[in-house]
Amino acid sequence: MLDKRNFLKTGGKWMASACAVAMLSACGGGNSEKAEAPAAGAAAAGAVEKPVLKFGFIKLTDMAPLAIAKEKGFFAEEGLNVTLEPQANWKVLLDGVIGGQLDGAHMLAGQPIAATIGYGTKADLIAPLSLDLNGNAITVSNKIWSQIKDGLPKGADGKPTHPISASALKPVLASYKAQGKPLKFGMVFPVSTHNYELRYWLAAGGINPGYYLPGDVAGTTAADIQLSVTPPPQMPATMEAGTIEGYCVGEPWNQAAVQKKIGVPVVTDEQIWHLNPEKVFGLRKDFAEKYPKTTAALLRAIIKAQQWLDADNGANRVEAVKILSQPNYVGADEAVIAASMTGNFTFEPGDTRPAPDFNIFFNHYAGYPYYSDAIWYLTQMRRWGQIAEEKSDQWYFDTAKAVYRPDLYLSAAKSLAEAGVIPADSIPETDGFKPATSEFIDGKAYDGHKPNAYLSQFEIGLKGKATVTAAGVVN
Fold this sequence. Notes:
Strand 13 and strand 14 (351-354) form a beta hairpin. The chain is of the alpha+beta class. It has 2 domains: 9-133 and 278-345 and 358-369 and 405-426, Periplasmic binding protein-like II (D-Maltodextrin-Binding Protein, domain 2), CATH 3.40.190.10; 136-274, Periplasmic binding protein-like II (D-Maltodextrin-Binding Protein, domain 2), CATH 3.40.190. The longest helix is centred in the middle third of the chain and has 23 residues, at 292-314. It has helices at 18-26, 40-44, 64-71, 74-77, 90-99, 110-117, 142-148, 170-178, 193-204, 235-240, 253-260, 269-272, 285-290, 292-314, 317-324, 334-341, 371-383, 393-403, 406-418, 451-455; strands at 9-10, 13-14, 52-57, 81-86, 104-107, 125-130, 136-141, 184-187, 226-229, 246-250, 263-268, 280-284, 344-348, 351-354, 467-469, 472-474. The protein is 37% helix and 15% strand. It contains 20 helices and 16 strands. The chain starts with 8 loop residues before the first strand and ends with a strand.
């Protein structure tokens, strides 16, 4: 694997071309952000149309492929000079990509899908690559944990049996209702994986998380529990302040609650849905059309970073943790990031369990943007009222194919395989759909080829011709 110190060498000589000088100047080589010149071979050959790029991200460990692609020189190998810029929240990030201030971003999978169907903001965005699998958890405050812990099933070691069902919250909800106040949990964005995972977990435990009405982003109609939006890095402080009593978020913000001794993770998303898709790399559709070589180059760089992150059974994860702990990336303590990214997951002090699949970036075809993953997100939008009316199965297929672009992924991945950079068998042979699976916390079967049949299985949630009014669900 090429080291960052060597990637600028071409023919044994350090690059010092007028092109490189111009590139450094264009990206502001004199500022605090260290500028990196693209590799001479790639730049001189005209391999990319737009060599200077800015990508956005939120401070979460699953932005790792972008940080690694920059720090290990994979972007520069592809002739790209990339600036990575943290964003205040998911709305600011989305607006930056749509408005062109950002060329692309570490993005919630639901964001390009929602933009394409016009939920919230209308824009033509695409997802040519999935950044990772898994990586989230649901954490409750110490107050809630103290109320549910004793009633949980225990293993032979006296520790709670996992996965923990949301049904454990029912006595807590009854207590709050008797006091005339709502139980409040946080999630990061209305179309986030976290929102849908939290809602899935709650509904699987018999708790209604509420429905969205057209034009209403609160999603609290007919709800047993109140869910609200909080940016990921603010989750622990918001819970500590008592504004919320639990949340669903990506790492390291669940482990931060453990370290601060203010909360306890009760379930990981891997326990809710085995090998579930998480973030994507999002682009404007017209960017990919205008800059096809640039798009292919950035995808190759990210794929190389994904492989590096999962190589040799995670041998590089310790180094990755050090990189991510830098303030310009995630900025959390190394110990907090390592607590979930190096093969284990800590639920509470003294209860650390093996979690080899908690963060997956390359294995299990993690980078391939499956149509069936996009369709699952669309089913959840329909289930909770963000899609107000019944849609045909064909509509789900067409929408997924408009957003998820495995053709772009395959072009980049196959060129890497042909060059011997990644194994050929790391690229799936597929029609874009994963095999049907029932590896969910409620055992429900999901087949991306049959979205409406999938929705029909749920007792809680919209299906068929059902709609939502202020009074509740109308069938």
